[in-house]
Amino acid sequence: MPENKKSMTVHRFLILLLAYLLFCVAGGVVVSGFLLPGVYGANAAAKRMLPSLTVENVDFNVNDLPQQSRLYASDGHTVLATFYAQNRVVVPLKDVSDPMQKAVVAREDRRFFEHAGVDTQGVLRAFIQTYVKQGDTQGGSSLTQQYVKNVLMNQAEENNDPIAEYHAREETIARKMREMLIAVQMEKRYTKAEILQGYLNIAQFGTNTYGVETAARRYFNKSAKDLDPGEAATIAAVTKNPSKFDPTVDPKASQEQRDIVLDLMAQENYITPAQRDKAKAKPLEAMLHVQDVNAGCQTAGDAAFFCDYVSKQILNSKEFGKTQEDRNKLLKEGGLDIYTTMDVNANNAAMNAARATIPVEDRSGFEVAIAAIKPGTGEVLGFGLNRVYDATENSGGGTRTAINYAVDQVDGGGWGFQVGSTWKPINMVAWMKAGKSINQALRTSTSYPKSSFNCTGSDGQQYAFGTDSWHVENSGGGTTSPESPLQGLIRSHNTTQASMAQQIGLCSIADTAQEMGYHNSAKDQMDVHSTNSFQPTMTIGSSSASPLTMANMYATIAAKGVECSPIAIKKVVNKGGKQIQVPSANCHQAIDPNIAETTAYALNQGVVQPGGEASMTQLDGGRKTFAKTGTNEDTYMLTGGFVPQVASYVAVGNAEGSVSFNGMTINGITRGAWYGMYIATPAWKMFMNNYLNAAGIPADNGYGNPDPKYTGGAQPQAQNSQPLPGQQQPRRR
Fold this sequence. Notes:
In the N-terminal section; belongs to the glycosyltransferase 51 family. By secondary structure, this protein is α+β, with helices and mostly antiparallel strands.
């Protein structure tokens, strides 16, 4: 026959009585001398049975508790998001109001300042009520014991030890004895103030609300140091049953419990009867000023995609731990202050430009992805997407997604966008690196043997591209021959790019791209030399990259050839106030500054001028502009460019697969054929103008001075050939 939980047996009675006597002695209560040897023997026996559960083996450092991490914008004070496993902000006791301290003591342990860890009167009362009278179960635990219990549970969770967690929660005599033993030892090592501070920071004060500071912010939108008696009593009442007495769950029950605590506070002379009556007279709902406590990027609004990028940077960077599990734990429990590179003005301008170009609910379904970066630093300034960030399981794709199409797949992005003619400045850099002039006359063709592009890479590996021919023509058909690389860039001619690659070798172009910060977006083919992307068609933009990668490539040109790895984090401070090492931008001189300036000259003096393919990119106010447009067949529209202070890139298209723009109605406009200058360029120009104005960035028109070494040679008179009959070639402008 099963034993009733509250049934009395001689054996159980003796155990409980012995435990009571043991902790009476430990707690400082004088008992008859003839009992002392037995009690001390029991104490020693308990320690032998529980050798690892002494105060020396339990971490009571309040700063080691799981704490929320905060993500800040580059201004250092705008909070973008918080991350936590337990929503907690640890504060010292001096930053907790006196009424709050007294409310907890009145509710949980009115003899807290008198006993030595175990409230023997409370234990005896609970013992008689539970086991002699067989009434409702009572704990009789002191505030110190409750602190011990919370610490043991937290430590078990931290160690991922379900057995220890079970033993920390189980309703057994053994657990009570363990807590009593450690509580007594604690009181010998720590002051009452230290124990009270620990309890106030570790206790659960509501649903997913840990610690008094978080509770104060959650329920009353104020700091714990500013809590009045009524607010303090409300919070103190929650711990008895956090899921039931949470003011946001059951305000009526919460108010009843608040009033009980106020009575207890008055009974202990912590507040006057007048203060009690005044606090009780105010309805709880009139006191509350509830704040959301949702965690993670889901609550970051327009900064959500940037927030997600930062979290991926932390999870993927060895600086934050050996494994992703370690890094995730640090993010959600480490109490980090994470200072990011996100410029609020830049991110807002990018989000607004993306949504103005193609509204979120536009029937075309095309994505707009914008990335901006600060040249010479690697600092990512912001992202723009015409999507709503949603990392829940019910997001279902479409207009709500957690995929940041502006970044690489490994960083939470997609496969990237085929970059089209925005690649062509890379060809020009490689051309000058080979010691050639951008005004050199080139014979071009519409057919090139693929074997003529065979080459040896900087890694010593030889690459061959087949024995057949590559047929290529310009967007308008045919070719222009002869033509210089400069004119080929201005007019965005494909055949000239092929002629350049044939002369200097495809490997030199791939190596140059890599030096400038280029890599493919797909995580299994990021190397520019990967089989699927390393083909002659690469010279006219067949490779797929993220907008951030392309923005960074343009930033290399803007920074006089200094390439930096994109970074999203400037500084991280842990809960102990120490800085944690963060990923480095590894800025270095990747290409000759004179080559960078000559490339910028070609973009500004030719490409964006009247008659150039990117003339519509010219920024307002006569600001010197450097940009290039691109169209990959009829599926992706692109624009990249810079001024010395910021580089950015816009990609428009279907990020999940190739979908033709032809005949589409986008944002109320229908076109038979779409080009980058129709949709990506206005988005780029809108972002750049709005951000530069909002940030107050002055014009810097001194950049882009060509080196005569690379501009020598006469420009030949071009002869336009006829399109080849019957050929359907990619159109990339």
